[in-house]
């Protein structure tokens, strides 16, 4: 059980595991995962070595956007259990030292939400109607782009009951709340308090750039939106201890930076642009995309931390790349048009890497060593596959693969009753890719992921250190230092397909000794001349640099690794 401190620091060292209740474990044979099933599997999550669980939306909802269309902010969808089940899960997670982040989806609700049902029949201009953004003219706010380009043609939809258009940045069944109505902010503050009072440790703020609309702008990142966030944050800090906001702002680094405010908005924000650039670097065998985006990443206030990820429940978004880069990504990673959705790619990590073990390990090494708290997406630790024949982004939301038993051990219901079919085809089928099999196999990806998470957590520099890229001539190699207090970590990655040698300028550490972190082995001392390393295909090496007189070797981290 963790103590609560007044000001949170835990997010700096977090390793986050993202999951959907629906997809994790079905305890009552209805075809949907539920909180009781998740409870059964909490030890598995703790064993992974992660510190924090991020739960996708589990509230009452028509589930037309997988729960991001909320019909009741303060309940639990009956498919997933009850509020009591949620409380029990939270207590059990806390008892294992795991923090829990849930979703605060405050840009929009479901059209089924009583606020919207009330708004449609309320008189024009009344406070009830004004909970949402209405217009008689569907040409307002023409500067706002459409996000779900595959399904929506306008951000306005006609409501025959209200006899007006309503504004929605996402699906037409998700009307946007109107933050120009102070009652909306009050209502949302109450929702926030509800979950924080229950003991939730953090809230992911969904789709925050779009809270406020103004004519003549693109309706993203407006000052009024930042003012709302500061109000939420001030209320959280005044009334609760040790809680955090994790902002979802799919924007360029310079536009995300303001979401940290002066340390008075979000504690964490996803670094969206670095994500596709890890894939780009590996496809091109060139470090430049990563180095360039890191150079464009501004410093963030003290107390703040990035969240980085390889994949999540959405498409691998390509909004934060140039047109040319997007074409390149589609050509490399989504040759079949079915693999594309909106402005992105709907595939999981393992298939994106053509199931190449070295590539999957290298991507994890980048995830665990670049600045920010890493977020793992459920199933990727096993190398689970996807199903591009399921609509929307559902292909990456199939049931967790626990064993070779019926329905991958996810549920004992008839297979036809599952919310989605389990992945069956080779090489990703549940018969071989599953927790039980991988636990039994010391060389499995699961064991590797457990080991790399543990290794990262041993050295605080990974979580809190500087990011100091080195500039060796060989651009196939990405090398950087992470420095925190006395700890200096050197990470060297061969992002290319062929073996490389690299000469690193480490003259600053003349007389120091690199100690390789997996094996604990001391490498030759650094001198004044360039330090030579060789790396096999897609290899990565992590070293602790020990000053003269320091350790000559360390305890080995684990028998698993590259
Ligand atoms: C972002 C979520 O990640 C995505 O799944 C959802 O569809 C949109 N927000 C709309 O809520």
Helix and strand topology:
Blueprint: E1 16-19, H1 21-24, H2 35-40, H3 42-48, E2 52-55, H4 83-95, E3 99-104, H5 114-121, E4 134-135, E5 156-159, E6 164-167, H6 182-198, E7 202-205, H7 223-239, E8 244-247, H8 253-256, E9 268-270, H9 274-284, H10 288-295, E10 305-309, E11 316-317, H11 323-333, E12 340-341, E13 344-345, H12 349-352, H13 357-369, E14 373-377, H14 435-440, H15 445-458, H16 460-464, E15 468-469, E16 477-484, E17 487-494, E18 500-504, E19 513-516, E20 531-535, E21 540-546
Parallel strand pairs: 1-2, 1-14, 2-3, 3-7, 7-8, 8-9, 9-10, 10-14
Antiparallel strand pairs: 4-6, 5-6, 11-13, 12-13, 15-16, 16-17, 17-21, 18-20, 19-21
The chain binds 1-deoxynojirimycin (NOJ).
Structural write-up:
By secondary structure, the chain is an alpha/beta fold. The longest helix is centred in the middle third of the chain and has 17 residues. The strands form five sheets. An eight-stranded parallel β-barrel has the order 1-2-3-7-8-9-10-14. It has a five-stranded antiparallel beta sheet with strand order 15-16-17-21-19. It is 26% helix and 16% strand. It starts with 15 loop residues before the first strand and ends in a 16-residue tail after the last strand. The mean pLDDT is 97. The chain is built from 16 helices and 21 strands. Helix 6 packs parallel to helix 7. The structure holds 1-deoxynojirimycin (NOJ). 1-deoxynojirimycin binds next to loops.
